[in-house]
Amino acid sequence: MLKRIISGIVGLPILILLVINGGIWLQISLGLIIFIGLREFYTAFDSTLKPVHYLGFIFAALHIVVMGQTFPLDNSYIIILAIPIILSIATLSLIVVRYRTTNILDCATTTFGYIYVVLTLSTIYFLREWQGGTYEIWLVFIAAWGCDTGAYFFGRAFGKRKLAPALSPAKTVAGSVGGTITAALLGALYGLILYNLEVTYVNYALGYAAITFICSIFAQIGDLAASSIKRHTGKKDFGNIMPGHGGILDRFDSIIFAAPTAFIILFVFSPFFDFLP
Predict the structure, then answer these.
(1) Is this structure's pTM higher than 0.85?
(2) Among 97, 3, 116, 5, which Cα is nearest to 56's?
(3) Which helix (H) or strand (E) holds 25?
(4) Does 72 sit behind a cis peptide bond, omega within 30 degrees of 0 on the bond before it?
(5) What residue numbers bound the domain in which 260 lies?
(6) Are 238 and 249 in contact (CB under 8 A)?
(7) Does residue 3 lie within any of the structural domains?
(8) Does residue 82 sit in the same domain as residue 157?
């Protein structure tokens, strides 16, 4: 627990500074996180499958370089869409030229690792660099870590029924509900603070509450999905790069689902709802 607290104290200010500044430093640091996370994912399957590491890393690098060129949005976003398609074709080509040593499951794991780690985490950068995203990006962390904190306290106080005992014995239904409520309340409070400070000229408290509510649900699914992957691969943690937290994927498992959810809500659905930013 002490290692976990110390890691949080050291890591949180760095994260805040990088997200506030955005730009090239966020791109570089996020790229490093993505590379470490992708390595952790592929390594988790090495004992049962043979993910094509080098292809995943090559296309991850391409994605990281290109993502810095996509805002303001223009035709360059087509490249972002093309990268996973080309990766799929490249990996599937291997089952033709290396059919004795590479199978379809190896290819599927390689491509899915790109989607699970690279695509999802890169939405953090897209959200931050989007016009107005200086403030909206924090909804992701409020949803994920606010939910985690609320779930801990509600679970300890009221938790009796297990949420998913086969995957995470400590999680309870009461903790899950309490975490979601906590995230929504924190989102509303964040919206009110920005409005009262005249950072935003429209009160988005309801919209922020709705976003953090939905994102917190998917954050919990992301947490359980990572636990399921570790159960299937026989891993306790994805890595040990963060003392007390495990690996990158152990710390960002909820963010991996929360960030793209916020991205979709803000980019796809916000034009249809007046209370969303």
Answers:
(1) yes
(2) 116
(3) helix 23-45
(4) yes
(5) 132-277
(6) yes
(7) no
(8) no
pLDDT in tens, the chain (277 residues): 334 444 444 456 777 788 888 888 999 999 999 999 999 999 999 988 999 999 999 999 999 988 877 554 555 667 777 888 999 999 999 889 888 888 999 999 999 999 999 999 999 998 998 866 789 999 999 999 999 999 999 999 998 899 999 898 889 999 999 999 999 999 999 999 999 998 888 899 999 999 999 999 999 999 999 999 999 999 988 988 766 567 899 989 999 999 999 999 998 888 877 777 7
Cα torsion 186, 189, 195, 198: sign: negative
- DSSP state string for 105-158: HHHHHHHHHIIIIIIHHHHHHHHHHSTTHHHHTHHHHHHHHHHHHHHHHHHHHH
The Cα–Cα gap between 268 and 266 comes to: 6
* b/e code 176-205 from CB counts within 10 Å (16+ = b): bbbbbbbbbbbbbbbbeebbeeeebeeebb
Same domain, 215 and 238: yes
Q: Are residues 118 and 137 in the same domain?
A: no
